[in-house]
Design goal:
Order of helices and strands: HHHHHHHHHHHHHHH
CATH class of the largest domain: Mainly Alpha
Structural class: mainly alpha
Number of strands: 0
Number of helices: 15
Radius of gyration: 21 Å
CATH architecture of the largest domain: Up-down Bundle
CATH superfamily of the largest domain: MFS general substrate transporter like domains
Strand content: under 5%
Helix content: over 70%
Length: about 425
C-alpha cells in the first residue's frame, strides 16, 4: 500500500470535510424518509409479511449485487459513482412523490424505491469508504469513523420523533421532497472536489489486458482468503454481527416476557443504545483508538460480549441495570465499528478497497437473516434471554481469543497478503 496517505496535504482533508458535510445532510434525509415509508406500510397494510418483504427487498441488492458493485467501484471513477448513485436515488424519490401527489401509490411502488435506494447504497458505500482512505491521513481514520458513527447515532435518536412529527404535519409527498432537497448538497459538494484515483495493480495472468469484472471479483476474494489475519478478522466481525443483530431483534420479547414491560421500557432501551452510540462515536472521534487499534478493537469486542451477557443475566427486578448494560453495548459496538473500519482502510490497498469492503458488507448482510433464523427457534425453546447469554459468551470468547492469534494481532503491520 502507498503510505503517502499519511502525509496528505491539508487540502485533501478540506475536500473530505466538504464531501462529508453534503453526505451528512443526505443521511438525515434518507433516515427520515425510511422511517416514514416503513410507518406508511405499517398503517396502510397492517401486515407483518409486507414489512418483512420490505426488509428483504432492502437487503437483496447488497447480498446479490454487492460483490459486483465493489469490483465496478474499483474500476470506475469513485466521485462519479457517488454522484450517479445519489442522483438516481433522488430521481426515483421524486417519481414516488408524484405518485403520492396523484393518490395512486401502491405497495409495490415502495418496494421498487427501497430496492433502488439499496442498490444505490451498494455502490455508494464502498465508493465513499475507499475515497475516505485517499483523502484522510491514516492517523485520523478512526476519528473520521467516530464522526460518522456519531452522526448515525444522532440520526437514530432524533429521526423517530422528527419523523412522527413530519407524518402528522405533512403529506407523504412533502416528506419525500425533504429527502430530495437534502440530496442536493451531497451531489453538489462532489462537483467542487477531486478524489484521487488509485493506480490499479495488474492481475497475474492477464498479460497486460484489462481484466473482466469477474476477474476483478475473483481477485478480491483471493485477496481476503489468502491473507489469514484479514480473513480471521472478517470472520470475527461477521459472527459478531450475526449474534448481535439477532439479540437486538429479540429485545421486545425480553421486555414483555422477562421484565413485564411495555412500549415505555422498550423505548428506554432503544434510547439507551442510541445515547451509548453517540458517546462512543464522540469518544472515538476525540481519542482516535490509540496506536495499536487492533488491541483496542479486540478489547472493545470482549467488553461488548460481557455487557451483552450482563443484559442476559439481569434479574426481572433490575431493569435499570439492563438499561445501563444496553447503553454500554451501544457505546462499545460503536467504538468497535469505527476502529474496525479504520483498520480495514489502513491495511487494504486503495485499489482493492471497493471489492474488499463490498465483500465484507455482503457477508454481514447475509449473516443477519441467518442469525434471525437460528435465534428465533432457540428463543422459543429456551427463552429470549438465553440468546443474549449465548451471544455474549461467544463474543467475549472471540475478543479474548483474538489476543492469542498472531495473524490477527499483527494485522496492522502488513498491507498485503
Amino acid at each position: 500500500m502507498n503510505d503517502s496517505n499519511s502525509a496528505q496535504p491539508t487540502q485533501s482533508m478540506r475536500s473530505f470535510l466538504v464531501i462529508w458535510t453534503g453526505q451528512a445532510f443526505s443521511l438525515l434525509g434518507s433516515h427520515l424518509v425510511q422511517f416514514a415509508l416503513v410507518w406508511w406500510l405499517t398503517v396502510t397494510t397492517g401486515s407483518a409479511t409486507v414489512l418483512a418483504f420490505a426488509s428483504l427487498v432492502a437487503l437483496l441488492p447488497q447480498i446479490l449485487i454487492g460483490p459486483f458493485a465493489g469490483a465496478l467501484v474499483d474500476r470506475w471513477n469513485r466521485r462519479m459513482v457517488m454522484m450517479v448513485a445519489d442522483s438516481a436515488i433522488a430521481l426515483v424519490t421524486v417519481l414516488l412523490a408524484v405518485l403520492y401527489g396523484l393518490g395512486v401509490v401502491q405497495v409495490w411502488h415502495i418496494y421498487v424505491l427501497l430496492f433502488i435506494r439499496a442498490l444505490g447504497g451498494a455502490f455508494h458505500w464502498p465508493a465513499m469508504q475507499a475515497s475516505t482512505t485517499l483523502l484522510v491521513p491514516r492517523e485520523h481514520l478512526s476519528r473520521v469513523g467516530g464522526l460518522n458513527l456519531t452522526l448515525s447515532g444522532l440520526a437514530n435518536i432524533l429521526i423517530p420523533p422528527l419523523g412522527a412529527l413530519a407524518l402528522e404535519a405533512l403529506p407523504m409527498q412533502a416528506i419525500l421532497a425533504i429527502d430530495v432537497v437534502t440530496a442536493v448538497p451531497a451531489v453538489a459538494a462532489l462537483f467542487f472536489v477531486s478524489i484521487p484515483q488509485p493506480v490499479r495493480q495488474e492481475i497475474a495472468g492477464t498479460s497486460g489486458t484489462k481484466p473482466s469484472v469477474l476477474a476483478d471479483m475473483r481477485e478480491g476474494f483471493r485477496f481476503v482468503w489468502n491473507w489469514k489475519g484479514l480473513m480471521l478478522f472478517s470472520v470475527i466481525g461477521t459472527l459478531s454481527n450475526l449474534l448481535g443483530r439477532a439479540a437486538a431483534s429479540l429485545s421486545p420479547i425480553v421486555v414483555i416476557e422477562h421484565f413485564a414491560g411495555g412500549a415505555l421500557e422498550l423505548g428506554l432501551l432503544q434510547s439507551a443504545v442510541g445515547v451509548g452510540a453517540v458517546l462512543g462515536g464522540v469518544t472515538l472521534g476525540v481519542w482516535g483508538g490509540g496506536k495499536r487499534r487492533i488491541m483496542t478493537a479486540m478489547l472493545a469486542l470482549a467488553l461488548d460480549g460481557i455487557a451483552i451477557t450482563v443484559f442476559g443475566l439481569t434479574p426481572t427486578s433490575a431493569f435499570p441495570l439492563a438499561v445501563v448494560a444496553i447503553s454500554m453495548v451501544g457505546f462499545l459496538e460503536t467504538m468497535l465499528m469505527g476502529i474496525n473500519g479504520a483498520i480495514f482502510q489502513a491495511v487494504v490497498p486503495p485499489e482493492m478497497q471497493g471489492r474488499v469492503f463490498s465483500l465484507l458488507i455482503s457477508a454481514a448482510q447475509v449473516a443477519t437473516p441467518l442469525g434471525l433464523a437460528i435465534a428465533g427457534p432457540v428463543a422459543d425453546v429456551l427463552g429470549a434471554q438465553s440468546w443474549w447469554l449465548i451471544a455474549g459468551t461467544v463474543i467475549t470468547a472471540m475478543g479474548v481469543g483474538a489476543f492469542f492469534v498472531p495473524a490477527i494481532m499483527q494485522i496492522e503491520n502488513r498491507t498485503s497478503p
